[in-house]
Design a protein that fits this description.
Elements: E1 12-14, H1 20-26, H2 31-37, E2 39-43, H3 45-53, E3 58-63, H4 71-82, E4 86-90, H5 92-99, E5 107-112, E6 128-133, H6 138-151, E7 155-159, H7 168-174, E8 183-186, H8 188-198, E9 201-205, E10 211-212, E11 222-226, H9 235-240, E12 243-246, H10 258-269
Parallel strand pairs: 1-4, 3-4, 6-7, 6-11, 7-8, 9-11, 9-12, 10-12
Antiparallel strand pairs: 2-5, 3-5
Helix pairs in contact: 1-5, 3-4, 6-7, 6-10
Family: Belongs to the class IV-like SAM-binding methyltransferase superfamily. RNA methyltransferase TrmH family.
InterPro entries: Alpha/beta_knot_MTases, MRM3-like_sub_bind, Ribosomal_eL30-like_sf, rRNA_Methyltransferase, SpoU_MeTrfase, SpoU_subst-bd, tRNA_m1G_MTases_N
Protein name: RNA methyltransferase
Length: 275
């Protein structure tokens, strides 16, 4: 990300859409580029500030000339520079190209990816983690990460083939919670082996379950397991759940959106810890 032509610590002004840095950052919209570089982009000063507060790796901050003199932008830019990141001033047309949006926010960050090893996950009494099996919708994933943050749950475990937690859509939907919520990626077999050895209770929702979700004892170390948007949990994951519950519905809909159902479950599981 560093520019060899500029003096160390200098702000690099970029106005050309063909600038190599623009090409490199714009490529992070593609999963392949994110995997190869271990980086991703996020839009908005709040995301940059949240990342800095959590000591998240940050490779660059880019902002429009219109906000260069705003105190919070200048403070964030100084913090990025102090950590060895690049500070880039870009025209709004360039920011629009990077973010693939006609009306981009005036600040964009380039961050390093961070995942927690499954072996390091410890679930204490009264704590809740969420395991998402084969979640495919980035908006759902981002909303769930934000909800996990909101209720004080401890983290999210992505099981099997899932959408990318560092995609632009997912990052945007987290509203900065991505930087506060530990993420884990693992396979189903590895997850089930870990759960067995970790002494956690697996709680899953299922359309054929008979146990009311409002009658779950909430102090046990718990992992809430939620399945794919269309198919739900796999049979192996369903069998592994210690408790299978249903969320009653009085209307004509036969199911809930994944993020909504996860939110309902999390608030119930955390009810005793929320004031």
């Amino acid at each position: 990300m560093a520019d060899r032509e500029r003096a160390p610590g200098a702000v690099r002004q970029i106005t050309s859409l063909t600038n190599p840095l623009v090409k490199d950052i714009r490529a992070l919209a593609m999963k392949k580029a994110r995997e190869e570089t271990g980086r991703f982009i996020g839009e908005g000063l709040k995301l940059v500030t949240d990342a800095l507060e959590e000591n998240w790796p940050i490779a660059a901050i880019a902002y429009a000339p219109a906000v260069r003199d705003q105190p919070h932008v200048a403070k964030a830019a100084a913090a990025v520079r102090a950590r060895g990141g690049d500070v880039l001033e870009m025209g709004e047309a360039v920011l629009a190209k990077i973010t693939h949006r006609d009306n981009p926010q005036m600040v964009v960050g380039v961050f390093g990816q961070r995942l927690k090893p499954l072996a390091e996950v410890k679930v204490g009494e009264g704590e809740v983690w969420v395991a998402l099996e084969q979640v495919r919708d980035p908006g759902n994933l981002g909303t769930i990460i934000r909800t996990v943050d909101s209720v004080g749950a401890k983290g999210v475990i992505l099981v099997g083939e899932t959408c990318d937690p560092f995609s632009f859509e997912t990052v945007r939907a987290t509203m900065g919670s991505l930087f506060h919520v530990p993420l884990v990626k693992t396979g189903r077999d590895a997850f089930l082996a870990w759960a067995k050895g970790a002494g956690v209770r697996l709680v899953g929702t299922h359309l054929k379950a008979t146990h009311d979700y409002r009658k779950i004892e909430s102090r046990a170390p718990t992992v809430l397991v939620m399945g794919n948007e269309q198919a739900g949990m796999t049979e192996d994951m369903t069998r592994a759940c210690d408790v299978r519950v249903k969320i009653p519905m009085a209307g004509r809909a036969d199911s809930l959106n994944l993020a909504v159902a996860t939110g309902v479950m999390l608030y119930e599981l955390r009810r005793g810890q929320l004031s």
